[in-house]
Amino acid sequence: MPEIELVLWYLNFGATLVLVYRFVHCKLFRTYPFLFLYWLAQIVADVLMFQVPLRSDLYAYLYYSSQTLYMILAVGVVQELYRAALAGHPGLAAFGRKSVLLVMGFAVLFGAAGVALDSPLLAGQYWRIHRFMTMERTIDSTILMVLLFISGFLLWFPVRVRRNIVVYMTGFVLFYFFRSAGLLVTNLLPYTHRGLLSSVMEGLTLACLLVWIWGLRAEGELETTVTGHRWNAAAAGRLSVQLDEINTALARFSRN
With 90 as the cut, is the pLDDT of residue 11 above it? Predict the structure, then answer.
């Protein structure tokens, strides 16, 4: 592993430790259990992988297993984020819990259409690694599309959300955008560029971790902000009424 990549890996590990500590110290793990488990799993996997030779079959199996676990936990993170963002609108939140997996199903079909973008295997690339990264990118792209859908909803409708939700959402949109783009570029370029690209992805992940460390705090559960149409009070008022009507209708539908 190149020296700069190794340094960034250790920095990411340290930043993840700090983030998990902040979750415990601020008692945020009770409010965001899936996000807490997501980063706790990263720490456990890194501790195990530190003990294993880099270019070994065991390291590859640990990497594949850990990435698969992260992708499963990420589905829980998306549902958790949707539920927390719409806590003030229980009808929409209940509907979202039932429909988010359906939305992800459609997003998977859309993301799978991009598999052909990096299907050719370049010289020096390993088939197993290349195909796993394609699968990982497809799932990451799916999660990104769902996050963008939730973000678009919040940017359109004037929803009052906790400050931590804004930080939570911003960090994950950036995180999955960087991962999806990075995995695609890694598969499109020759194997000789992999070290540089891996270092760039580690650096961008570190930036996202620092956003969460700086932004997620105990008082962020008490501070709130209104999201969509803050620049147009008249439109915000009209959309707020529409949002309440939608919430009421969905709450009635959920009870039937």
Answer: yes
Q: Identify the residue with better confidence: 58 or 229.
A: 58
Q: Are 202 and 8 in contact (CB under 8 A)?
A: yes
Which residue's structure tokens are 């799916």? 142
Confirm if 197 and 185 have CB atoms less than 8 A apart.
Answer: yes
Tell me the C-alpha distance between 167 and 57, whole Å.
38
The letter for the amino acid at 33 is P
Closest CA to 157 of 99, 229, 225, 89: 229
Torsion of CA 231, 232, 238, 239, to 10 degrees: -30
Listed as own residue / partner, the contacts of 92-95 with beta carbons closer than 8 Å and 24 or more positions apart are 92/243, 92/246, 92/247, 92/250, 94/250, 94/251, 94/254, 95/250, 95/253, 95/254
What are the domain boundaries of the chain?
3-255
- In tens, the pLDDT along 133-166 reads 777 787 788 788 888 888 888 788 888 888 888 8
DSSP 157-205: S--EEEHHHHHHHHHHHHHHHHHHHHHHHHHHS-GGGHHHHHHHHHHHH
The type of residue at 253 is: F
**Predicted pLDDT of residue 153:** 80
- Classify 27 in phi/psi space as left (phi over 0), alpha (psi -120 to 50) or beta: left
pLDDT tens for 166-195 read 888 888 899 989 988 888 888 777 767 777
User: Of all residues in the chain, what percent carry a pLDDT higher than 90?
Assistant: 15
Alpha helix ranges (H) inside 86-112: 90-112
CA neighbours closer than 13 Å in the CB half-sphere of residue 242? 11
